[in-house]
Amino acid sequence: MPLSKIAGIGMYVPEQVVTNNDLKKWMDTDDSWIQERTGIKERRLAHRTEETTTTMAVEAAKIAIERAGITAQDIDFIVFATLSPDYYFPGCGVLVQRALQMKEVGALDVRNQCSGFLYALSVADQFIKSGMYKNILVIGAEKHSMGMDYSTRGRNVSVIFGDGAGAVVLQPTEKENQGILSTHLHSDGGSAEILAQYNPGSHANHWMETPVADFEEAEVGEMFMSHAMIDKAQLFPFMDGPAVFKKAIVKFPEVIVESLTKNGYTTEDLNMLIPHQANLRISQFVQQKLKLRDDQVFNNIMSYGNTTAASVPIALCEAWQNGKIKEGDLVCLAAFGSGFTWASALLKW
């Protein structure tokens, strides 16, 4: 059974740079407050009307496809991870297929938030190993800025996130000592609501302490979207930051060690860890817990913020472009996020 390798990788981030000081125009905050809590100095925000999750994904995909030495017509499957699709439906996968004028290939959308890219990579890895597909385009892309509350009320969440896209082309490899060695996927929905965007949705807010309306009397459409939801700012993401942090610093190291142990390695063998760029303090805690050197961990959240499903492929691409990942290196990708879901992938570059 052949392993699958990353044959090409690309990234795209919007031109608009928004610093912490720039955010002061919209909310009561400051640079030191944000850096102390998150490590973020700036982020990229997409053009309000000219850029979408899909358009950014297409730009990253073009680069990955070119670097893989193939054309869009050679792609035989798409796996697209995002929590911020262009439309509620259909998903972004088919929009990429259309934009790149591909053949009528299959397109699968993955909704696993921060772990989305690794889930997507794992799915693509199985298709390659089975021999079903030969050139799979795997994308993680987000346009968070379309749905953030950029007021003082929403600052605890909105200052963290940025926009961008990353993509890889996965192909089979017969070369020894190369490719994805294993992937590891986990979930625990026990605390799903502490990091979530509840509305719009089909839950009718039955779990909320203070429902936004009397749904026994509400029209059906109002159960999905209502003026009350807008008035009470219930269309924005919710996050209990401290609770998420406590869970992440346990599960993040566990899933990294799981991937290493599965393949007979230790942290000393690791050339590069690419963690999901959720919070620099989480990455630093994981690095300290695993006793990794600075040169074994790559972080770029300082420049891009948390780009959720896009953060791992963007960081992986940037690390490779900067010469920090070379052929034969042992690389671990890891993520933790809403759900909760967490995942890792270990590969030989």
Task: Note the quaternary state here.
Answer: single chain
Structural class: alpha/beta
What is the CATH topology of the largest domain?
A: Peroxisomal Thiolase, Chain A, domain 1
CATH class of the largest domain: Alpha Beta
What's the gyration radius in Å?
20 Å
Structure explained in plain terms:
The structure is a single chain. The protein is an alpha/beta fold. The chain has two domains: 3-173, Peroxisomal Thiolase, Chain A, domain 1 (3-Layer(aba) Sandwich); 179-192 and 239-348, Thiolase/Chalcone synthase (Peroxisomal Thiolase, Chain A, domain 1), CATH 3.40.47.10. Helices cover 31% and strands 22% of the residues. It has helices at residues 31-38, 53-67, 92-99, 116-130, 155-158, 220-224, 227-231, 241-262, 280-290, 301-304, 311-321, and strands spanning 3-12, 17-19, 42-44, 77-81, 106-110, 136-142, 164-173, 179-187, 195-196, 238-239, 272-275, 330-337, 341-348. The strands form four sheets. Strands 1-7-6-4-5 form a five-stranded mixed sheet, with helices on both faces. It has a four-stranded mixed sheet with strand order 8-13-12-11, sandwiched between helices. The longest helix has 22 residues, at 241-262. The radius of gyration is 20 Å and the shape is globular.
Keywords:
single chain, 349 residues, alpha/beta, Peroxisomal Thiolase, Chain A, domain 1, 5-stranded mixed beta sheet, 4-stranded mixed beta sheet, 13 strands, 31% helix, globular
Explain briefly what this protein structure is.
The protein is of the alpha/beta class. The chain contains 11 helices and 13 strands.
